[in-house]
UniProtKB/TrEMBL annotation:
<feature type="domain" description="AB hydrolase-1">
    <location>
        <begin position="3"/>
        <end position="221"/>
    </location>
</feature>
<dbReference type="GO" id="GO:0003824">
    <property type="term" value="F:catalytic activity"/>
</dbReference>
<dbReference type="InterPro" id="IPR052897">
    <property type="entry name" value="Sec-Metab_Biosynth_Hydrolase"/>
</dbReference>
<dbReference type="InterPro" id="IPR029058">
    <property type="entry name" value="AB_hydrolase_fold"/>
</dbReference>
<dbReference type="Pfam" id="PF12697">
    <property type="entry name" value="Abhydrolase_6"/>
</dbReference>
<protein>
    <submittedName>
        <fullName>Pimeloyl-ACP methyl ester carboxylesterase</fullName>
    </submittedName>
</protein>
<dbReference type="InterPro" id="IPR000073">
    <property type="entry name" value="AB_hydrolase_1"/>
</dbReference>
């Protein structure tokens, strides 16, 4: 199976380095992405738009040899979800790790502070204890660089409701599947569209918000099982 891995805020393809070997050993063809604006800490992000990040994921799907398993992490879930909308017929299944899919008009990082063209990483001290469970601070902070500030102001444009029929797995790390299902039952705004998905499942992966760093083998096993091989 072709697997495309989409990182979340402040991270590039290297954030998946501990996961990729497990997937390739299982026989998969894996591509971890560095989204536009995340090439380096010094990159010029002034001309990078939300649509550019979605287009990068769409391009990776187009370059695969067949239907892909698409995996997004955190804010990368929304970017991945927008790519599903653009390539419904080319995505065999989608996995959202610590996040949820995009919806039309959704601004992915609207509440984050910016610094010019940059969306700087949140300081370690401001994360909840549950977020950084099992996480090595030095290793984590060495990976970080700003994301594009456009993520705080530009909405997703989606138009293919067949995306709701793509098999979808929600991986729950610093919260539980029961927590997420409770938010859905309460019609919480960020997850209000989840019940529209017709082929939906949940799995717990107890750790912090970055299981690709803290539980890579376990996350890879979940991804591998999702492919149905």
């Amino acid at each position: 199976m072709d697997i495309v891995l989409v990182p979340g805020l402040w991270l590039d393809a290297s954030s998946w380095d501990l996961v990729v070997p497990h997937l390739t050993d299982a026989g998969h063809s894996v591509r971890a992405l560095t989204l536009p604006g995340l090439e380096s800490a010094e990159a010029d992000r002034s001309a990078v738009h939300v649509a550019d990040q979605v287009a990068a994921v769409v391009a990776a799907i187009d370059e695969a040899s067949g239907p892909v398993t698409l995996v997004g992490h955190s804010m990368g879930c929304a970017v991945a979800g927008a790519a599903v909308d653009a390539r419904v017929d080319a995505v065999a299944n989608v996995i959202y790790v610590g996040g949820w899919p995009a919806e039309p008009g959704m601004i992915p990082a609207k509440n984050f502070p910016t610094d010019g063209a940059d969306l700087p990483p949140v300081p370690w001290e401001e994360f909840d204890e549950a977020d950084v469970r099992d996480l090595d601070r030095v290793t984590f902070e060495a990976l970080l660089r700003p994301s594009p500030a456009s993520l705080t102001s530009e909405p997703f444009e989606l138009d293919d409701e067949r995306r709701y029929d793509v098999p979808t797995l929600l991986v729950c790390p610093e919260y539980t599947a029961a927590d997420l299902q409770g938010w859905v039952a309460d019609d919480a705004e960020p997850v209000a569209a989840i019940p529209r998905h017709t082929n939906l499942s949940y799995v717990d992966l107890p750790t912090g918000h970055w299981p690709q760093l803290t539980k890579p083998a376990e996350l890879a096993a979940i991804i591998d099982r999702s492919t149905g091989r």
